[in-house]
C-alpha cells in the first residue's frame, strides 16, 4: 500500500501502522478480570441470599422506572436552564451544594445491593474500563494519583481504575450515600494487594468538610451510572458543578447508552463548556499570544477528550440521533446463574453494555497537525500500474476477498464458545499472574481536531464502506458536524482497508 508523505510533520504522524493503532479505540468481547470474578463469587457465597433471580428482576424493573422518569424531563428542558440553572440565586450561594445525592436518588437495601453485585456490576465495570482505557490512550502522559469516584456504588469504577492505572493510584475518595453499597464495596476488596489509600464518604458535603481546601482537587473525577438516579435536572447540574470544581485535570461522566442517558451527558457537556467559555469572556486577561498572563489564562477553559473531536454544539441532536457506544462482555458465571433472558430463550454467554460518556479536560485544546495533512494516496489504478510480475503472482494466488477466517476477524463482536474461559480461571487455585495485553504503541491519536469519531457500525457493501462520523469542521475544533463518508477501494485502497477494519467507536483521520 503506497502512500506519499509530503511534509516532515506528516511523516511523524502517519504510517499505515500508526493510523490503525491511533484510530483503534473499541474493544472486542471483554473478559472480566479473574480477581473481580473471584471477589464477586466470594461475596455472594457469604450473603446466602434466597430468591436471587426474583430480586435481580425486581432491580431491573426499578432501573426501568428511573428511565421513565428521566424521559419526561427531556421535553421540559430548555437551553437557558442547561446553561444557567441557578439564575436568581444569590452569587455567594452559586457554588454551594444545593442537593444531597442519595436523599433524592436511589437508596439500596441489602437485597438490592446483592442483586446489583450479581447482575450489574460486571457490565458497569466493562463500560468504565472501556472509557478509562481510551482516556489512557488519548492522554499517554496522564497518570492520576488522586481520584474521586462519585456514586461509587459497589466499586465498579474503582476496579476499572486499578486495571487501567495499576501503578499510579495513591489516594481514592469514594462518595456513596448507601451504607449497603459501601459495605459491599469494602467486602469485595478485602484481601486485595497493593490497594491505594481509600476514604469513603456519604455525601460531597462530608468530603469537602473532612479535607483541607488545598487538598480538594483531584487529578481525575469520575461519576458513572449515577446522574440518572438524580431526578431533578437542576440538582444534576449542581452536582456536576461541584464535581468540576473538585477536578484538577480530567472529569469523566458515564451513563447508560439510552436516549435518556445520552441526553443527560449532552446536557452536562453543554453546561461545562458554557461555564468555562463564560469564565474566559469575563477574564480580565484575554487569551492571546502576547499576553504576559498567557499561562495563567490557559488554566481556564475546557475541551472534550472523548468521544467528541470538537467543542461545539452536538450535531447528533439536530439529526435526531443520540450518542452512545457498546461494549460486549463475556457473562460471568454469577450473571448466567441469576439473570433471565427475554422470552424464555436460553441466556447467551455474552451481553452488550450500551453506554454514553464524556471526558472533559481543563485548559485549551492543543493545536495539532491533522493526521492526513500533506498526504497523497495512490488510487487502485495507480497501484496496479506499478505492479511487478511477482505482485501479479501473489494476487493470483490470494483471493481479493478475505477468507472465512479473515472475515471472522472483521466481525465486530463474535459470540463466545460454549466453554467459558472465565469458568476455568475462576476455579483455578493458583494466584493469577495475568499479563495485561500491551497497547500497540506505533501511534496515538492526538487531541487536535483531525480525528473524527465513528458513530454506529460502519456498513460494508462490496468495495464500499459507509460510515457516519462526528468530526470537527475547523482548525480550532470549536464547531462540529455529523458527516456520512463513503470510502471506495478504487479511489483510495489504503483508507478502504482501514475502513474495513474500523468498528463503532473508533476514530477516523481527516485532513484540513
Strand residues, percent: 15-25%
| pLDDT < 50 stretches | 1-13, 72-78, 88-104, 290-298, 394-438
Number of helices: 20
Profile the largest sheet: 8 strands, mixed
Judging from the principal axes of the Cα atoms, what is the shape? globular
List the helices and strands and how they pair.
Blueprint: E1 3-5, H1 8-13, H2 16-23, H3 34-47, H4 52-74, H5 79-83, H6 110-119, H7 121-138, E2 146-150, H8 156-164, E3 171-175, H9 179-188, E4 197-201, H10 204-210, E5 218-224, H11 233-245, E6 247-256, H12 259-282, H13 294-297, E7 302-306, H14 315-319, E8 325-330, H15 333-338, E9 350-362, E10 375-377, H16 380-385, H17 389-397, H18 404-410, H19 421-426, E11 451-461, E12 464-472, E13 480-488, H20 493-501, E14 507-509
Parallel strand pairs: 2-3, 2-5, 3-4, 5-6
Antiparallel strand pairs: 1-10, 6-9, 7-9, 8-9, 11-12, 11-14, 12-13
Helix pairs in contact: 4-6, 4-12, 7-8, 11-12
Written overview of the protein:
- 39% of the residues lie in helices and 18% in strands.
- The strands form three sheets. Strands 2, 3, 4, 5, 6, 7, 8 and 9 form an eight-stranded mixed β-sheet that branches.
- The longest helix is centred in the middle third of the chain and has 24 residues, at 259-282.
- The chain contains 20 helices and 14 strands.
- Helix 4 (52-74) crosses helix 12 (259-282).
- Mean pLDDT is 77; it is low at 1-13, 72-78, 88-104, 290-298 and 394-438.
- It has helices at 8-13, 16-23, 34-47, 52-74, 79-83, 110-119, 121-138, 156-164, 179-188, 204-210, 233-245, 259-282, 294-297, 315-319, 333-338, 380-385, 389-397, 404-410, 421-426, 493-501; strands spanning 3-5, 146-150, 171-175, 197-201, 218-224, 247-256, 302-306, 325-330, 350-362, 375-377, 451-461, 464-472, 480-488, 507-509.
- Helix 8 (156-164) links the parallel strand 2 and strand 3.
- It is α/β, with parallel strands linked by helices and 512 residues long.
